[in-house]
Specification:
Layout lengths: L2 H22 L9 H10 L7 E5 L4 E5 L11 H38 L8 H6 L7 H6 L6 H14 L6 H10 L5 H9 L3 H21 L16 H39 L1
Antiparallel strand pairs: 1-2
Helix pairs in contact: 1-3, 1-10, 3-6, 3-7, 3-9, 3-10, 8-10, 9-10
Amino acid sequence: MTPKQVFEDSFRMAELLIHVYRLLENDGLQTTGQLVTSLRGLLECEEDEQIQLVVNTIFLGCIRESANVPNAQLRPLSLQNLLRQAVVSGCTAYETYLSTLLAENILTVIEVRQQDFFPTDADVVKYFEGLSLGINEAFRLLNKDDQAVFLRGKIVTFVQKNNLGSVAGLKTVGLLLGIEAPWNSLAVHLHKERRDLTKTVSDAIERRNAIVHKADRDLAADGLEKQPIAFAWTQQAVDTIKHVCLGFDELVNARMTEYRAELAARNQEN
């Protein structure tokens, strides 16, 4: 699978959860009334069987008693958990995509730029502070035929064990893959303001962390209640992550095409 396909496959869960939320959104399940009576006849229900209807502008659903779904599970506050998991899934897809994209393309960058492949950006240098070489690994760098593959392995292994789930993660991967000022380039490519993109992605990741590590609760508050989450905000956050990753994929693919053409020209010269 290509990095784009990996992203789309992972991201599908976020979109599915949002769709399910929209289908189940309700102001209260209906258990009486003409519509309930009509559906009883259509389904040939027993008179004492309880049925619950989910009714909104896009969906009509009937929950039969045998489904054993408590009314409380479909209350608005409970359904917000679908939105929370959509945010988690979207952010996970973002991080997985960046890791996969780097693993797929860093070897090409090393082969083209050689000793100049590693960015001098202070944030990238700091991110890789924990990467070290043992004496036996240092000797492997003397083998020119093995240098690029070895460095690729070290970088990819390090990244996979560390966090790319941040705004800085895209910047780090972009610079490693030869994209100058990654967020600025992406903003121009998407015809968006840089701050709008980075703020939305940063807020989504911060919310993901709160959901995963604190169950989306304000642990400093007296009631420890969950923070409210809105459908519109969730849709915007998830959509922005999607556009960021797909747009970034286009930028990286264009740069890799240039690098591969440069490699091909070098090989012809030799």
